[in-house]
Amino acid sequence: MPGREGKRGLTRRTGSFKTVALLMLIPVGGIVLFFLWSFLHNALSLLHRPAHSEASVLGTQHRGDIVLILDDVGFDHQPLSSAMAIDPNVNFAVLPNGRRSIEFASTLHARGFELLCHLPMEPEGFPRISPGDGAVLTTMSDAEIATATRANIESIRFARGVNNHMGSRATADRRVMTDVLGALPKGMYFIDSKTTGNSLAGPLARTMRVKTASRNVFLDDVQEVDSIRRQLAELANTASTRGVSVGIGHMYPSTIQVLTEDAPKLRAEGFRFVRASAVVR
C-alpha cells in the first residue's frame, strides 16, 4: 500500500490535471459563445428587417421605391378584393361621393391599407365636366372652400392624406389651393395628382409646410393592357432613376389585371411598393 506521501503526490497530480483541463476549456468555451452570439445576432437582424426589404433578403439589389395609388375607389363592381391582393402597400384614394365609399374605406382600413381622401375639385371644362357632388369650386368663398374640404375629409375618416380628383382648374388657383391646404388636419399630407402642368399644389404645400409629393406617371389614361403595361414600365424606370416614383391608376379591370401580373415581377427585380406617407416631404 502506498504511504501518505504517495497519496499526496497522486492527489497533487490529479488536481493539476483538473486545473489544466479547466484552463483549456476556458478559450474553447469563449469560442463557442462567440459563434453562438454571432448566430443569434444575425437571426435577430433578419427578424427585425422591414417587410419591404424582401428584395435585399433574397439578394436582389434594391432598384427603387414605387408609390402606387389607386383612385376613384367607392363604386359598385370595382374589383376591390383583387386590388387588395396586389401588394400590402398599395394606397387607395377613396372618393367621398362614391356610393360604397364608406363601406370600402372600412374594409380597406381593417385590412391595414393606407387611405387617401380623393378630394373632388373643379376641372377645366366645368360644369360640362363634373367632379361630382361636394366638389371644391373656384367660385366658392374662402370659408366655403375650407368647409367643403373638411367635410370631404371627415367622410373618409381613416384617410392619412389627400389627393385631388380632377381639379385641373382648382389646383392652378393659388387662393383655392391655399384654402384647401390650410383646411387639412394637422399631419395630413397632400399628393398632387398633377392633372395639369399649371398646378401650384406641390410648391404651395411645401411653402405652407404641408408634407407633399407629386404624381410622376398615370397608368391608365388608355384602358388597354398593353398601354398600361408600358406605363408601369415607365413608372419603374422613373423609380430606378430617381429612387422613388409615384404612379396613379384606377380601379379598372385592365389596370388590376396588369398590376396583379406584373407586381411580383417588379418585386423580384428589386423594386419595392411603399406607402405614400413614407415618401412625402
Key structural traits:
2 domains; single chain; 9 helices; disordered N terminus; globular; alpha/beta; 17% strand; TIM Barrel; 281 residues; 9 strands
Topology:
Elements: H1 4-47, H2 54-57, E1 64-73, H3 80-84, E2 91-94, H4 101-110, E3 114-121, H5 142-155, E4 161-166, H6 174-183, E5 189-192, H7 201-207, E6 212-214, E7 217-218, H8 225-242, E8 244-250, H9 253-268, E9 271-274
Parallel strand pairs: 1-2, 1-8, 1-9, 2-3, 3-4, 4-5, 5-6, 7-8
Helix pairs in contact: 5-6, 8-9
Short description:
The protein is of the alpha/beta class and 281 residues long. It contains 9 helices and 9 strands.
Overview of the structural elements:
With 281 residues, the protein is of the alpha/beta class. The model is unreliable at 1-14, 19-23, 31-37 and 39-57 (pLDDT under 50). The chain folds into 2 domains: 1-48; 64-278, Glycoside hydrolase/deacetylase (TIM Barrel, Alpha-Beta Barrel). The protein has helices spanning 4-47, 54-57, 80-84, 101-110, 142-155, 174-183, 201-207, 225-242, 253-268; strands at 64-73, 91-94, 114-121, 161-166, 189-192, 212-214, 217-218, 244-250, 271-274. The radius of gyration is 30 Å and the shape is globular. It contains 9 helices and 9 strands. Strands 1, 2, 3, 4, 5, 6, 7, 8 and 9 form a 9-stranded parallel β-sheet that branches.
Low-confidence sequence ranges:
1-14, 19-23, 31-37, 39-57
CATH topology title of the largest domain: TIM Barrel
Report the helical percentage: 40-55%
Mean pLDDT: 87
CATH class of the largest domain: Alpha Beta
